[in-house]
Amino acid sequence: MTNHIPPIKNGLVQRILIALAATIVIVYFYPHPESNRFNYEEGRPWNYAKLIAPFDIPIHPDSATIEAARDTLDKRFVPIYELNQLIIDTIVRRLPDAPGYKNRLSSEIRKIYASGVVDMRTKDEISAGKLPKVRILDKNILSEMSTSAFTSPRDVYLYLDSVIVDPELHKYFARANLQNILQPNYTRNEEESRRHYEYDYLTLTADRGIILQGQTIIDKGAIITGQDYTNLHTYETMMAQLSYKENQSKYLMLLGQFLYVAVLMSLLMLYFRFFSPAVYGNIRAIQFVYILLTLFFLIATGLNYFIAQGIYIAPMMIVPILMLVFFDGRTAIFVTGILSLICAGVTAFALEFLFLQFCAATATVYTLGELSRRSQLLRTSAVVAVAYMVSYIALELLMNGSFEAFTWRMTCFLIVNAGLSSMAYILMFAAERAFGFISVVTLVELADINAPLLSRLSNECPGTFQHSIAVSNLASDAAQRIGANVQLVRAGALYHDIGKLANPAFFTENQHGVNPHDALPPERSAAIVVNHVADGLKLADKAGLPKVIRDFIREHHGAGLAKYFYITYCRNHPDEEVDKSVFSYPGPNPQTRETSVMMMADSVEAASRSLPEHTREAITELVNRIVDSQIADGLHNESTLSFRDVAKIKEAFIKRLMTIYHSRIAYPSATKKTEAAPAAAANPATPPQGSKQ
Q1: What backbone torsions phi and psi does residue 274 show, to the nearest 5 degrees?
Q2: Of 126, 346, 576, 658, which sits 20 to 30 A from 177 (CA to CA)?
């Protein structure tokens, strides 16, 4: 036995690889230089600290302003047209020769064209009221002109057709085929119109000014307007360009992130090495912790990516709950601290985030203590919610001196966070199945005497069942004295002898006057007794009992001897060299303090039944003899019990056995003359007057 940290088991490379894999995954999903620095939404409060401009930032118009400017320009823009003075002469030249009629018709055409003729699309816009005027470009000079008198070639033709009353002139008009030669004399200049449109658009959407270096871009808690949103986007764009111009290597920042996470992961491993050797020596436990850290970092990062400040919704307190259930409170606080430091790199308010998580984790560990009922999780969730709210209010008062920046959005986030902590119950059972852990809740359920195997043991092996209960009580007392896992010892002791279900009558506590061993040779009897370990393991496997419970079945006799049958065989064969393996249990010897305590309690409880008298001296001598004999045989060499632990275990055994076997007072027989006798018989707990308890 030793009283120091157990030797480190092999697997250093595995531990390094586990920590390295977790580090790589976390760094891969860490915010990188090219990603946005902030998460924000228009119409939501700015949840970061006051943002100060590190350089001059132009105030670009926001999207709503740009859309409004475009709509206004579309409605107010006056297109540019040009007057083609030669188009009338061209039309006249194309009229058929008829001196009298040609002059009269061309005169009418010139009168109409003097008011302006445009194409049908323009005429339709004018008719719809969309184009009350146009701008006329003449020798690089623009002048506006009303469109009220404008007409179209079609209207010109219909007008002439209706106003010509001279039959001969009308015949000439029909022969002139005007519908094919009439053309507009005012035409839209598309290139100039587009150029002036773009100029007007740029004028309307020009920068509104400059946020000078040192001025506030946005205050904490301010509602993000459309203009604020645009300013923030401009700031981030300029920051990215500045980083590129200054040749800041993203690989160096990536290296910094890797070193930051790697240092935290290394500190966690060192903590396990020096302060939690049970975790350090268990590769599955190391895997569980690092997978849990990585998983909750990804959850927090994912929520923060899709929801502004979504990291505060992540149920981080599930981590200390699971650490407390499977390990201890100190480990729960340390692991949660490492997770908080990793996630702090994702938040804008690292200090505030760390403060909130530390307060909530402390409240979780303090409130939960030892999880044995599901209702405890609901109580813990309520306490975590209170811890979050008090911490949040304290931060607001500390940083702002008022409640102006207090937001119900953050309040809801923290309350949802606390409520989701109750999901630890589901993850707890998943971890038990995946990593072979066992929680106090499961141990309490296993220790229920109505559990299938224990119910069967009670019915088929009542003597063994009573022995198991007595061993459970005896071992639990001792485990509590030395700080071992009491619930584990209690449950393991109840199941340690279930292998006797295969042959109940071959064990003393189940016999009623007939001993079947009397008809068997010692080696055969030893084989039956020794096999109850293997039979118990088969039943445990079939029932799906956890490994830690099966360890009690496997180790409760260690590699010791079935001494009664061994000694009997030696007496019957004095001249023969006896093969001890025939009478030995398969082992191994106890590997933990819990199984060591249970082995001692098993032997002491069984032997105490055969004591002729249960005085303190007799019980003390029995306990010392049995425990010292096991130690001398080396059965506890692989356990981590110390000599101080052994002394406390002996003391616990003696005290418990004295309580079990304490002498009771003898009550005098009642006589007919004694009227108070019926009352005394009715209340036997009250000793007669003058007697001593």
Answers
A1: -100, -25
A2: 126
| C-alpha–C-alpha distance, residues 428 and 588, integer Å | 29
**What are the tokens at 556?**
């409760």
Output the CA torsion sign for 197, 200, 204, 206: positive
Neighbours of 576 (CB within 10 A): 9
What's the one-letter identity of residue 114?
A
Burial of 444: CB neighbours in 10 Å, binned 0-12, 13-18, 19+: middle
Tokens of 610: 């055969």
Q: Which residues contact 347 (CB under 8 A, 6 or more apart)?
A: 304, 311, 353
Under a CB-based contact definition with an 8 Å cutoff, are residues 367 and 350 in contact? no
Count Cβ neighbours within 10 Å for each residue of 15-53 and write b for 16 or more, e otherwise: beebbeebbebbbeebbebeeeeebbebeebbbbeebeb
Q: CA–CA distance from 545 to each of 285, 360, 535, 538 (Å)?
A: 19, 35, 14, 10
Q: What is the DSSP letter of 55?
A: S
CA dihedral in degrees (134, 137, 142, 144; nearest 10)?
A: -20
| Tokens linked to 122 | 């323009």
One-letter-per-residue 3-state SS of 215-279: CEEECCCCECCHHHHHHHHHHHHHHHHHHHHCCCCHHHHHHHHHHHHHHHHHHHHHHHHHHCHHH
Nearest-angstrom CA–CA distance, 268 and 19:
9
Residue 554 confidence (pLDDT):
93
DSSP state, 501? G
Q: Integer distance in angstroms from the first to the last C-alpha of the chain? A: 42
In which residue are the tokens 């099966």 written?
Answer: 550
CA distance 73 to 79: 11
Paired residues of 218 in beta bridges: 51
> What is the rounded distance in angstroms from the CA atom of residue 341 to the CA atom of residue 584?
54
Q: Which residue has the tokens 């409170």?
A: 329
Cβ–Cβ < 8 Å for 541, 554: no
Contact 480, 486 (CB under 8 A): yes
Q: What is the DSSP letter of 210?
A: E
- Which region among 150-154, 204-208, 323-327, 468-472 has the lowest average model confidence (pLDDT)? 204-208
Give the tokens for residue 623.
């306990």
- As given in the structure block, the two tokens for residue 226 are 């459309």
> What is the H or E stretch that residue 419 is in?
helix 408-420
What are the angstrom distances between the C-alpha of 404 and each of 50, 220, 389, 410?
Answer: 14, 10, 16, 13
3-state secondary structure of 96: coil
Instruction: Report how far residue 95's alpha carbon sits from residue 326's, in angstroms, rounded to the nearest whole number.
Output: 105
Number of other CB atoms surrounding residue 175 within 10 Å: 12
Instruction: Give per-residue pLDDT as tens, 336-366.
Output: 999 999 999 888 778 889 999 999 999 998 8
User: Mind listing the pLDDT tens digit for each residue in 427-482?
Assistant: 888 888 888 888 888 888 888 888 899 999 999 999 999 999 999 999 999 999 99
Residue 389 · residue 413 · CB < 8 Å? no
For residues 532 and 554, the answer to whether their CB atoms sit within 8 Å is no
Quote the tokens at residue 75.
């409605």
- DSSP state for residue 52 in the 8-state scheme: E
Angle at 641 between CA 482 and CA 14, to 5 degrees: 110
